[in-house]
Amino acid sequence: MGELGVLIPIIGVCIPIVAIWAKHRKDVLQMQIEATASQSAEKAAQYASKVQALEDRVQVLERIVTDKGYDVATQIEALRDTKSIEDTDRGVQLDLGTREKVK
After folding, report:
1. Which residues, 6+ apart, have CB-to-CB distance to 87 below 8 Å?
2. How would residue 64 be classed by pLDDT, with cut points 50, 70 and 90?
3. How many CB atoms lie within 10 A of CB 84?
4. What are phi and psi of 13, to 5 degrees?
5. TM segments (predicted)?
6. In this structure, is the dihedral angle defined by the CA atoms of residues 10, 12, 13 and 15, taken in order, positive or negative?
7. What are the phi and psi torsion angles at 90 (to 5°)?
8. Model pTM greater than 0.85?
9. What angle do CA 59, 60, 66 make, to 5 degrees?
10. Percent of the chain scored above 70 by pLDDT?
């Protein structure tokens, strides 16, 4: 019975300490949740902005293809042909089939 008499005041002191610690821990976790939510909202806004920019770029590309017709590939090939002719005029041979230099 003597040991039990010593244990009761110790338990009486520990219970409020544990209650204070639990409340503090709950408050810290709540602040972490709010900070995470704030960061998530910022990232969501950044992603929405990037998505909008990409949608704008796709609209521009769609306009280019539909307004000028689908001759983009032909224009690219024409540019390649022009480059090939200019390089040949200067005496440089282009061998696009291999990666070795042509002598």
Report:
1. 93, 94
2. confident
3. 14
4. -80, -35
5. 6-22
6. positive
7. -90, 5
8. no
9. 85
10. 72
